[in-house]
Design a protein that fits this description.
Mean pLDDT: 93
Number of domains: 2
Helix content: 40-55%
Number of strands: 4
Radius of gyration: 29 Å
Low-confidence stretches: none
Largest sheet: 4 strands, mixed
Strand order of the largest sheet: 3-1-2-4
Strand content: 5-15%
Shape: rod-shaped
Length: 110
């Protein structure tokens, strides 16, 4: 059973269509490989997360809201990287510790 046309003009048309389709597929593969390469490079170049983060309150001059471990998934957009000593000081001053990442436990403050 032959599923190809028997005559030369239609075979040539099919050949042209397949060549064009193959080129489109190759272009898509090249684009996907470029995206993967860029993603991999971005992950390699991404700076490590900070050790400790202070989430800031809303408004100018508002008190800090929470202390977080640097890799906590609940950190808001208003934040500032802090050192271990600053995190300890903030917790000592009554800034709330995040309930998800428990920086107070990690810092040895209970």
């Amino acid at each position: 059973m032959n599923d190809l046309p028997p005559d030369l003009p239609r075979l040539r048309t099919l050949e042209t269509w397949l060549a064009v389709s193959l080129e489109r597929v190759r272009l898509q593969i090249a684009a996907a490989e470029q995206r993967e390469k860029e993603k991999r490079q971005g992950e390699e170049r991404r700076p490590p997360p900070p050790d400790w983060v202070l989430e800031l309150g809303i408004g100018v001059g508002a008190p800090p809201a929470e202390v977080h471990a640097g890799d906590c998934y609940t950190i808001g957009r208003r934040r500032r990287t802090i050192t271990r000593e600053q995190a300890l000081a903030a917790l000592g001053e009554g800034v709330r510790a995040c309930l998800h990442c428990r920086p107070d436990t990690a810092l040895g403050v209970l």
